[in-house]
Structure of Proline iminopeptidase:
Amino acid sequence: MKIKNFVLATLTLAAACISACVSPAAKQYDAPELGDYFKDTTSAIKTGGVEMVTINTPKGKFRVWTKKFGNSPAMKLMLLNGGPGATHEYFECMESFLPAKGIELVYYDQLGCGNSDNPKDTSMWDLPRYVEEVEQVRQALHLDKDNFYLLGHSWGGILATEYALKYQQHLKGLIISNMMVSCPDYGKYAQEVLAKQFDPKVLARIREIEAKGDFANPEYMELLQPNFYEKHILRLPSAEWPEPVTRSLGKMNQSLYVTMQGPSEFGISGKLANWDRKKEIKGLSVPTLSIGGEYDTMDPKHMQWIATQVQNGSYLYCKNGSHMSLYDDQKTYMRGLTKFILGVNNGEKKVEL
């Protein structure tokens, strides 16, 4: 009897020691029950998660469109679309991956985009103002440091970076997707690396059109589409681009896009041309994931470098991906994004991907 009790006590002690040695990051995360994930906790008339948020701006009040997909107390991922001037719709592919892991999606059309108000005032297309807009949306949707993950893709990555530099205390995790933190470096990469991959005759004709400022010339996009967009934006023939992408890009606010970016993705010449936060990102302590694609319009080495500069950085490399790695290297992108969010949720500050 004493031997039996000794064995039981030893086994109990061993189990306790093993349990104590398991780090929070190693815990198995169990996705919520389907009923809990899709439970609508709003008290007013049900709208399928849609909420119009009123924002205050120097030009008055406007309304922006948001939609919650799912219900997760600890993992709410707000999505900032690119362009500038596209819509939330190209993020719809995430519904095929993230909800299964219990991650809530928060769609949001920035002012001037998609379902949100469009003041049609170019003075409103301003980075600091958009930062304050994101903060007002965060407050309205009750997102905080215990649940708020912010993903910005392309232009959205600029906005997410700038938001984090001012308001990182409200973030649980930051994802900078397919975006450098220096627009001058972005422009340099386009001219010194990507331009050299063009057929010289094609590049000469593109430069000729640009020199004349003849961007409305249909030949301009006819040259860029197969020679640049299908190689560095989304690596498929444009006729085969996924419907959520074409639907989103088809609603592009050209006023916003040209004001901020310039006439095309081939370099940058708009208001953002001099934006550079290479020095400032060292102050970011929030767990940060940088995502880059081998064939991106952005330099993948720069995006890897970002993860070494922030205090708690992780890097996801999409070897088959371009600017839309969430589509043309989808499994890599979604697997890495999910692992990062779950890892941070379980206490990791840096996630091995």
Q: What stands out?
A: The chain has a mean pLDDT of 91. Strands lie at 50-57, 60-69, 76-80, 104-108, 148-153, 173-177, 288-293, 313-318. Residues 35-183+272-345 form a domain with the Rossmann fold fold (CATH 3.40.50.1820).
